[in-house]
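Hello again, I could really use a second opinion on something today. For a while now I've been wondering how a particular protein folds. Please have a think about how the structure follows from the sequence. Here's the protein in full, and shout if anything looks odd to you:

***
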Amino acid sequence: MSPTAAANYSPEALAARAEITDRIHLYAHCVDRRRWELLDQVFHDDATWWVSSIGSEKGWREAMESSRTLFAAALDATHHQVGNVLISLDGEVAVSETLCTAYHRVRADAPLGGMFGGTGCAYDLLAGGRYLDRWELRDGDWKLARRRVHSEWRHQQPAADGILSTYPPEARGAYDDSDQSTPVILRYRAAQHQTSTPE
């Protein structure tokens, strides 16, 4: 094994890769389960967030609020599936590329225009894109310093009547702590409390 490869797969490097990958997955969970408040476990306070279909780079909190408002106004359900994660480490900085395929159920009464523009009829939107990220290790935590989301393809079709309503509520999940995933995110809440509580 070359010295470079050994450095990139040392126990410390493997721990860094695992932490970064964990936070990539946490982001998808936060968006799909509307746990917006946990995104501070993904982004550093001064991180920026740019989305190609919107075209403006914002501080992540501003971008999050825009997303929260848009999702509430336009979407009944979302499902983000991430994979093909490539991570390049360089000391306390890392860059990564993550492929994402996302499903969105757009409501009939969604506002006109924008990323999830209403048409007067409900439709299903499938989209593919990439997260091109910069991560920084600060105070012992790997978090995003910059996220750039590049949309690469979109496909939409009319929503089949009643499809979502045929699944039991527990299968579709919930947007509060009645969701079955709640035990999974308790450690992130604990970390959030630790970082927000003065010594």
Remarks:
- The first helix runs from residue 3 to 8.
- The first strand starts at residue 43 and ends at 51.
